[in-house]
Design brief:
CATH superfamily of the largest domain in chain B: Winged helix-like DNA-binding domain superfamily/Winged helix DNA-binding domain
Number of helices of chain A: 10
CATH class of the largest domain in chain B: Mainly Alpha
Strand content of chain A: under 5%
Radius of gyration of chain B: 19 Å
Helix content of chain A: over 70%
Order of helices and strands of chain A: HHHHHHHHHH
Shape of chain A: rod-shaped
Shape of chain B: elongated
Structural class of chain A: mainly alpha
Distance between the termini of chain A: 76 Å
Number of domains of chain B: 2
Structural class of chain B: mainly alpha
Largest sheet of chain A: none
Number of strands of chain A: 0
Number of strands of chain B: 0
Oligomer: heterodimer
Order of helices and strands of chain B: HHHHHHHHH
């Protein structure tokens, strides 16, 4: 090996120490007498040295929030509270009229349908030829905010009912429900943060609406459970809890 | 010791313990995002990082502690990045085996870098490499993998991996020599 071409072809292997001893000695001998090849060797050595200092890169914050949202969407629905038959049930307060509870649940369900419909209508994929004007985009954002307000109103109303009747439920069961609601609230907060960072993020929007609808479902189950307990219907309570588990 | 800690963390993730998978993400995301950014570009790397961690989450039960969690995630990330490049129609190998067939690499002999190598310039030059060269250079010189591992990941022989690395270095030298002479001329 004596020509510059031959030596330069082997410089990387020489640099990485993977050249057999005889060829290695030949390259070393050539470098001692050739400034051009010595310069190339020095450059490749420095290049490799700088490459090794290229470190980790911190990803933007919204990436984790989107991952967390997508994981939640993939996972099974939140476990519904299971009845605790072996534990003593606290004395029930005077029962509320059943019709009133049913009315609230019906209202929440209706709001859910209306708001979901509004949300998906506004966010459907435009058909070919559709012109999306800025005013339409503003309108879609406004509709999204209205849908969120409807969800939140339904949640507030259900929460009031759930809190007022919480003492009816077995304490361990109430703790389970609180745990589920806490996890859902965390999901809602994370999705909202993701939307602040990236308002157009479809996974974050889907995650937010998924979490809100899970909260409504959990609260509906809780209110149904309270109602059955107030009626003194243990079997009904067990049935409601079992249905909640399936949903 | 590390294997035990990794298995314990993975067990917490599989039990859906709050914050456990986020701990995996916070620990390993910067290295994997660096890898993905250099292999596929910054914009696509964000989507790919999501894909890497969603796949990892799905496959956590396959992690048996035979390697560290870091190595397991790095392999998974490398494969997803290379699959992504292939899906874009990128050829990860060059058919030719000689430098003479690569005029741009051959041009490296003409100019020397001769100054300080700026890391940003190097990142730009890496991004401009053909995908196969880029993969060999990033995996070997930046991430420190051996040619056997690189060859397996790329589906090529070790000889081809060495050859791609050498050509990548020559092209980078030519690109950096160009950018230095431009900055000197300003």
């Amino acid at each position: 090996m004596s020509s510059c071409d031959e030596v330069q072809r082997e410089l990387s292997r020489f640099l990485d120490g993977s050249l057999p001893a005889r060829e290695r000695a030949a390259v070393r001998a050539h470098l001692s007498g050739c400034a051009a090849c010595r310069g190339m060797h020095a450059d490749l050595l420095r290049l490799r040295g700088v490459a090794r200092t290229l470190g980790p890169v911190e990803p933007p914050d919204h990436v984790w929030l989107e991952i967390a949202g997508r994981i939640r969407l993939q996972e099974a629905p939140v476990a519904a509270p299971a009845p605790g038959p072996a534990r003593p049930v606290m004395p029930a307060p005077p029962p509320r009229p059943r019709a009133a509870l049913g009315q609230w649940i019906g209202l929440a369900a209706a709001l859910l349908l209306v708001t979901l419909g509004a949300y998906w209508f506004q966010n459907r994929t435009p058909a070919p030829g559709d012109v999306v004007a800025p005013t339409v985009v503003d309108s879609a954002t406004a509709e999204l905010n209205l849908a969120l307000e409807d969800y939140e109103r339904a949640i507030r109303e259900l929460e009031t009912l759930a809190v007022s009747g919480e003492s009816t439920i077995d304490p361990a069961l109430a703790e389970t429900i609180q745990g589920s609601l806490g996890a859902i609230d965390q999901a809602i907060a994370e999705s909202r943060t993701a939307l602040v960072t990236n308002p157009e993020s479809e996974p974050a929007r889907a995650s937010l609406f998924d979490a809100l609808s899970r909260k409504i479902t959990t609260l509906q189950t809780t209110v149904s459970l309270i109602n059955e307990m107030r009626q003194g219907d243990q079997e009904g309570a067990a049935r409601v809890a079992a249905q909640g588990k399936k949903s | 010791m590390q294997a035990h800690a990794d298995l314990a963390l993975v067990a917490r993730c599989r039990a859906n313990e709050p914050g456990a998978f986020e701990q995996v993400y916070r620990t390993h995301a910067p290295r994997l995002f660096g890898l993905a950014s250099r292999l596929v570009g910054r914009t696509e790397a964000e989507d790919l990082l999501q894909e890497i961690f969603l796949t990892a989450h799905r496959k956590l039960d396959q992690f048996k502690g035979e390697s560290t969690l870091s190595t397991w995630l790095f392999r998974l990330a490398t494969n997803l990045c290379l699959d992504h490049l292939r899906s874009r129609g990128a050829r990860l190998t060059r058919m030719s085996e000689t430098i003479d067939d690569d005029p741009e690499a051959g041009r490296a002999a003409a100019g020397a870098i001769g100054g300080v190598i700026d890391r940003l310039d190097l990142e730009r030059a890496i991004a401009a490499l053909p995908p196969g060269y880029r993969a060999a250079f990033v995996l070997h010189d930046v991430e420190g993998l051996g040619h056997q591992e690189i060859a397996e990941a790329l589906g090529v022989s070790e000889g081809t991996s060495k050859s791609q690395l050498h050509r990548a270095r020559l092209r980078l030298r030519a690109a950096l020599a160009g950018s230095l002479s431009e900055s000197r001329g300003r």
